[in-house]
Amino acid sequence: MSEFSRHDGREADALRTITFDADFAANATGSVLVSFGNTKVICGATIEKKLPGWMRAQNVEGGWLTAEYSMLPYSTHDRKQRDSSKGRLDGRSVEIQRLIGRSLRAVMDLKKLPGYTLWVDCDVLQADGGTRTASITGAYLAARLGVQKLIEKEAIDENPFNDSVAAISVGIYEDQPVLDLPYIEDRDASVDFNVVMTGSGQYVEVQGTGEEATFSEEQLGALLTLAKEGCREISTMQTSFLTQRLLVSNPS
What we know:
By secondary structure, the chain is α+β, with helices and mostly antiparallel strands. Helices cover 33% and strands 27% of the residues. Strand 8 and strand 9 (203-210) form a beta hairpin. The chain is globular, with a radius of gyration of 18 Å.
């Protein structure tokens, strides 16, 4: 029997190389280019002194955060048609942008963002698996950078984020639980999970399915353990990035 090996030579529990480049989009309030290996996503946060109509109509206190997600036509090997040319968002884009919004709102006190809407736009430059997990991870950083500008201008009194949030993929590939799957592994995985967690180790969302396959309770436990360790490592990277960018001791 041949020894298990991954396409890129990583150990089963190893992340791809993850990088964050701040201020990638000059006109955004906060922005980050996040890379998970060959997957690259621009995450931009724009903050407007404006609320959704439903909040005004219902006299809901505080502010709001919403997200949009798209894959640029050249992000995949075969050109991806723009949603605008189709006249509608595809179901996958809608699902992912809702996931991004839920993930960030889970670690926010929106009452501390009174009268503001924080828009987070995640645009995939290059897709090699894990675009939603990279988007969530980078979206938090972009939003946090944007919020800091409001704090510095004394437009809001305090940071509305009460924790950080990150996400990672895990799966069963060639009968082995693995962390952070690139496209070639994601395509052939028998089980595929996306896990969103806070910096304090709480689950926000777990999406998982057998791809025309089943998985055992033991495999489920192994996947969640891998995801927890991966998210913990990413959270440490996020904290280091924000500490350097914001020069604060507790940038959650």
